[in-house]
Amino acid sequence: MKIKEITNYLEEIAPLSYQEKYDNCGLIVGDKDADLKAVLITLDCTEAIVDEAIDTGCNLIVAHHPVIFTGLKKLNGSNYIERTVIRAIRNNIAIYAIHTNLDNLHNGVSAKIADRLGLINCKILAPKYEECNSNVGSGIVGELAESVESKTFMERLKTTMKTDCVRYTSLVRSTIRKVAVCGGSGSFLLSNVKTLGVDIYISADFKYHDFFDADTNFIIADIGHYESEQFTKDLIYDLLTKNFTKFAIRLSKVNTNPIKYL
Questions:
Q1: Which end of the chain is least crowded, N or C, by CB within 10 Å?
Q2: 36 DSSP assignment
Q3: How far is 251 from 183, CA to CA, in rounded Å?
Q4: Region of residue 184 (phi > 0: left; psi between -120 and 50: alpha; otherwise: beta)
């Protein structure tokens, strides 16, 4: 089996055309025609992840975040990106990124959050191709089966999403029923969320002034970037293991979150 059989399959599910213009999805390092030994799935690709791939005999890393995002002008090991790429090349390890093309699927990254929260009647929050395909786009909006008291919901959110910190605005809704979510950095969807009549919007990476944008209309809950996407590994794992059974597919055991909390 060749590496391209995995990458082709992933691109059938999440076509590269679905990625945002700024993104860098696809095969970033390596030869698509190389024989596949085993796959390591991770959220981020770092030096520690390449070492894990070496130790576990994996020659393909499938990461959510692209290790090369804005391009490389030099390759001399001066930062972690260059060192990661160099180590991968030296050890014949391919690196593949499935990022905003997976974010933009109706059953993608944000849907994984919705599933964990028990949301029903889910739909894309901001369709990418509204005129022809409402199942592609950013975020998910759905409902809880029953309304939940706001403080109770916030406590459940912290536990369910396994986060050490939730930054949130005033609990302007006494109960939560309609919920919007977006994995990763979701402040760009605030204008869309305002039109949906949601009780809470859950995402990450909100800046100070972004929190004012909720006004008294809904609650913003920032659960952290890594925390909002950590279950993406499981999503990719499920996609691959259901269709490929003749070689090892491993979930990385390395926590790549660069942020620590006191």
A1: C
A2: P
A3: 19
A4: left
Number of C-beta neighbours around residue 167 at 10 A: 12
Each residue's pLDDT tens digit, 155-171: 999 999 999 999 999 99
Q: 88 phi and psi, to 5 degrees?
A: -65, -45
| Alpha-carbon dihedral 177, 129, 64, 93, rounded to 10 degrees | 160
Characterize the bridge pairing of strands 175-185 and 200-204.
Answer: parallel
Using a 10 angstrom Cβ sphere, with 0-12 exposed, 13-18 middle and 19 or more buried, the burial of residue 102 is buried
What is the rounded (10 degree) CA torsion for 29, 35, 38, 40? 10
Q: Could you tell me if 104 and 130 are in contact, meaning their C-beta atoms sit under 8 angstroms apart?
A: no
Strand-strand pairing, 200-204 and 219-222? parallel
Residue 130 has pLDDT above 80, yes or no: no
| Spans of all domains in the chain | 3-102, 104-228
The CATH number of 3-102 is: 3.40.1390.30
**3 state SS of 187:** helix
Name residues whose C-beta falls within 8 Å of residue 242's C-beta, 6 or more positions apart in sequence. Answer: none
Per residue in 38-56, pLDDT (tens digit) is 999 999 999 999 999 999 9
Q: What dotted CATH number matches 104-228?
A: 3.40.1390.30
Which single residue is written with the structure tokens 């979150």? 257
